[in-house]
């Protein structure tokens, strides 16, 4: 049986991590809907035994259920956008949309670490030619490395800047990040991934920055 | 006597609904929306069972579980997880959880786990008390 290549393995691991995170988010919504449905059942049983039924209480429950349905729907839409990005073709990539999607995908980690995001995206959006799925993975890696190196309550600025030969994605904390290292990007597989995307990553822990330099078009 | 339960989850809607349902079933329920808040609570109160969401903002579930066990070694912690497998269950036990249940949780199944947790905790506390009595008797040569 043919084993996946090193890059495909990285891609599969990325897919697995993101899928697990998304399913956890959906489970949280389902748990709330489940408890509210259970509560409705309990209130109904009590009403059958003569206990008064509060319309306000019922309304609060229905609002909560609707909110969770909307939340789960947004999560599934995010999931669909991600799943539709899998593939190996070189194609035009809207960097603004892709970066925003990866920020949304990282949201559970961002919330877990209590980090705030400030994103600066140019208008019109920056478009480059790249392999969308692997580019998403690279951006996701950069976001993970930054967020894991930051302290709770800090602000992460994500800025996209067009330059002559392509674009930068700049991830910036407010100050130095001693915990930010090149370790996450230095393996042979990661080097192969960066070479495939013709990307260059610069890590500056003194200024708390990751700079991702992407070409206008990969060949 | 009713079970005394601490519910720890960052989803407030979930906490409120589950807390209300458990209270209606005769349990004495306290809630915490973060691991930090929960740790402050357990410093002054003990519980028959602690229901802990494994993934919350701030202190992560693993760290929360370890901290609770350090402060209250007799604690019976039931993990709420988004993905329950046998392997996850074994992993959870190794780090000190007494049981786990997958979200969305069936309240009847969770209530059974809480009853078992209470029984286990009572056994531990009784053994600790018996040991203290024996140690005191030995100290006075009895």
Strand content range of chain B = 15-25%
What is the CATH H-level superfamily of chain B?
Answer: Response regulator
In the CATH scheme, the class of chain B would be Alpha Beta
Counting copies of identical and different chains, the oligomeric state is: heterodimer
- Give the CATH class of the largest domain in chain A: Alpha Beta
What's the Cα radius of gyration of chain B?
16 Å
Q: In percent, how helical is the residue content of chain A?
A: 40-55%
- CATH topology name of the largest domain in chain A, in short, is Heat Shock Protein 90
- Termini Cα gap of chain B: 35 Å
Low-confidence stretches of chain A: none
User: What is the third-level CATH name, the topology of chain B?
Assistant: Rossmann fold
Element pattern of chain A in H and E: HHEHHEEHEEHEE
Q: What can be said about the biggest beta sheet of chain B? A: 5 strands, parallel
| Separation, N- and C-terminal Cα atoms of chain A | 30 Å
Mean pLDDT of chain A: 92
CATH superfamily of the largest domain in chain A: Histidine kinase-like ATPase, C-terminal domain
**Main beta sheet of chain A:** 5 strands, mixed
Strand order in the largest sheet of chain A: 2-4-5-7-6
CATH architectural label of the largest domain in chain A: 2-Layer Sandwich
How big is the Rg of chain A? 22 Å
Task: Kindly estimate the percentage of residues of chain A that lie in beta strands according to DSSP.
Answer: 15-25%
Summarize the structure in words.
The complex is a heterodimer of chains A (219) and B (142). Chain A is of the alpha+beta class. Chain A is built from 6 helices and 7 strands. Chain A has a 5-stranded mixed sheet. In chain A, strands 1-3 form a two-stranded antiparallel ribbon. In chain A, a hairpin with a 2-residue loop joins strand 4 and strand 5. By secondary structure, chain B is α/β, with parallel strands linked by helices. Chain B has a single domain, classed as 3-Layer(aba) Sandwich (Rossmann fold), CATH 3.40.50. Chain B has 5 helices and 5 strands. In chain B, strands 2-1-3-4-5 form a 5-stranded parallel sheet, sandwiched between helices. In chain B, helix 2 packs parallel to helix 3. The longest helix of chain B has 33 residues. The termini of chain B are far apart. The interface between A and B is medium-sized, with 26 and 21 residues.
């Amino acid at each position: 049986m043919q084993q996946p290549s090193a890059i495909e393995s990285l891609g599969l691991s990325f897919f697995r991590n993101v899928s697990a995170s998304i399913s956890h988010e959906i489970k949280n919504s389902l748990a709330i809907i489940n408890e509210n449905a259970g509560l409705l059942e309990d209130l109904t049983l009590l009403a059958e035994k003569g206990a008064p039924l509060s319309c306000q209480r019922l309304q609060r429950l229905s609002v909560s259920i609707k909110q969770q349905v909307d939340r789960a729907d947004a999560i599934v839409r995010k999931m669909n956008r991600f799943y539709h990005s899998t593939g190996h073709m070189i194609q035009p990539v809207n960097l603004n949309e892709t970066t925003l999607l990866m920020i949304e995908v990282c949201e559970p980690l961002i919330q877990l670490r209590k980090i705030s995001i400030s994103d600066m995206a140019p208008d019109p959006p920056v478009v480059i030619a790249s392999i969308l799925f692997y580019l998403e993975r690279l951006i996701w890696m950069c976001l993970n490395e930054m967020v894991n190196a930051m302290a709770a309550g800090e602000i992460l600025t994500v800025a996209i800047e067009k330059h002559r030969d392509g674009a930068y994605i700049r991830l910036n904390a407010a100050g130095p990040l001693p915990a930010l290292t090149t370790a996450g990007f230095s393996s042979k597989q990661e080097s192969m991934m960066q070479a495939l995307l013709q990307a260059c990553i610069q890590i500056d822990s003194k200024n708390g920055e990751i700079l991702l330099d992407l070409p206008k078009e990969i060949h | 006597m009713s079970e005394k339960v601490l519910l720890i989850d960052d989803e407030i809607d979930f906490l409120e609904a589950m807390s209300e349902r458990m209270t209606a079933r005769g349990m004495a329920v306290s809630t915490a929306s973060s691991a930090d808040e929960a740790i402050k609570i357990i410093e002054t109160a003990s519980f028959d069972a602690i229901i802990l969401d494994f993934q919350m903002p701030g202190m992560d579930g693993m760290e929360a579980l370890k901290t609770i066990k350090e402060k209250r070694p007799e604690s019976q912690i039931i993990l709420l997880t988004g993905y329950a497998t046998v392997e996850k269950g074994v992993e959870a036990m190794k780090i000190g959880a007494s049981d786990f249940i997958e979200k969305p949780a069936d309240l009847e199944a969770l209530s059974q786990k809480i009853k078992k947790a209470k029984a286990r905790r009572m056994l531990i506390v009784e053994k600790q008390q018996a040991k203290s009595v024996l140690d005191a008797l030995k100290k006075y040569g009895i």
